[in-house]
UniProtKB/TrEMBL annotation, chains A, B:
Domain (Peptidase C83): residue spans on this chain: 1-232
UniProt keyword annotation of NADP present: no
Organism classification: Eukaryota, Viridiplantae, Chlorophyta, Mamiellophyceae, Mamiellales
Main EC class the enzyme belongs to: transferase
GO molecular function: glutathione gamma-glutamylcysteinyltransferase activity; metal ion binding
Metal-binding is among the record's keywords: yes
Span of the signal peptide: none
Keywords: Cadmium, Metal-binding, Transferase
Pfam families listed in its UniProt record: Phytochelatin (PF05023)
InterPro entries in the record: Papain-like_cys_pep_sf, PCS-like, PCS_N, PCS_N_sf
Record organism: Micromonas pusilla (strain CCMP1545) (Picoplanktonic green alga)
The protein, known as: glutathione gamma-glutamylcysteinyltransferase
Enzyme Commission code: 2.3.2.15
GO biological process, one term: response to metal ion
Length: 232, 232
């Protein structure tokens, strides 16, 4: 169910957990290129956390204003020291552009930013946490917005979208995968509003929670593990 | 009143003209640099108009998917032929980066895209159209969303924001000025939700319609005329 439909808007208006939506929507970024879904998701969530005391860096394009950008993210010294899971090379825009990040790689570079201001962070593999556990985390996190947000790393095909799109041109990492922030949850429909950062392809969409969990269960060929979620 | 406040969200939930909001929010772009407010506003509105039959170009970064970007906007042949008002030179990213666009320059390059699919377009100077006329246009346009949207070109100081920001570094065009899409209108408060594309500085904010009209009345030093609005 597309958000921009009568049913989609009605579901948001009556959702049991709508509070993250306006914070995510206000800062939602289009990924810079077809492999930067994790970067755009990170930037969206980190900017949404400004009210929770997460300081942003100053990107030269916007000086003197502080704002997370997909460029400034990788100028961070901690990120540049982070060893990627697959190749044991350092994280960089070039590495990410080749094939995107696995769940672990994403959580690794994200942890450079969310240690500050007492903001907790954890990531979870879907195969170690079933749909019921995921639902509990979704509800708890969205109830805590704007002090916490949640993002997911999943395979598109399980939620009815064309597979992996942005991974077709590069085969180094293999495994179509995407990353997106969650905007809302509705108990009655047991559905999650996924706010895709591939805005050139997919509008925000209500997805059954179980379908999204299935989409996270799919093994990522690059890591040999399932996908999963990150709570920031 | 910030959108991300209890009062701001309540106003949106009960607004008399809320229909444009989700379309604009879904595609809201951060301006690429501090002079690209008109470009980011154009891209946001043009992408929101996809459902109304406005075809997007394919930016190489997102091929094969079609989506307006602040880069692809200026690769358009019609835009590259457009003579800017002030210098009688052709419109280009370089021209825009020097000092942004006046209302006329913005309307000129925007007209390259909105002639298609029968989408009407007009722009209006604030000093030729009083606040009552503006209110009529706002209501009619927002009632027609997602087939029509409205953007404003204004001076920040009148709506209580720090003046001009992005114009401080460049003095060629002079005159602090910004451009932004409108997300909603509420009759009861007579207020407009301005969705700023300088997301590194300003969140979406409810602004009294009369203050916004005053902000459009201010003469733009570059053109010698008032600012105003564009309906797409």
């Amino acid at each position: 169910v597309a958000l921009n439909s009568t049913a989609g808007l009605a579901r948001l208006a009556n959702a049991s957990h709508p509070a993250a939506f306006h914070h995510i929507a206000t800062h939602l970024e289009t990924q810079r290129n077809q492999a930067f879904c994790s970067a755009a998701t990170s930037v969206t969530i980190l900017n949404a956390l400004a009210g929770a005391g997460v300081d942003a860096p100053v990107d030269g394009f916007y000086a003197p204003y502080a704002y997370y950008t997909q460029r400034a993210l990788f100028e961070n010294a901690c990120v540049r020291r982070a060893k990627t899971h697959v190749y044991r090379v350092n994280m960089s825009p070039k590495f990410l552009a080749r094939g995107g990040a696995t769940l672990e790689e994403w959580a690794l570079y994200l942890s450079c930013f969310v240690g500050q201001a007492g903001v907790a962070r954890h990531h979870a593999d879907a195969n170690e946490n079933d749909a019921n556990a995921f639902r509990v985390v979704v509800k708890a996190t969205l109830a805590d917005a704007p002090n916490a947000f949640i993002g997911v790393n999943f395979r598109r095909v399980e939620i009815g979208e064309a597979g992996g799109g942005h991974m077709r041109r590069v085969r180094i990492h293999a495994g179509p995968r995407t990353t997106a922030p969650i905007g809302a949850y509705d108990d009655a429909a047991d559905a999650i509003l996924v706010m895709d950062v591939s805005r050139y392809k997919y509008p925000p969409v209500w997805t059954p929670l179980r379908a999204l969990h299935d989409a996270m269960l799919a093994v990522d060929e690059a890591s040999g593990k399932s996908r999963g979620w990150v709570v920031v």
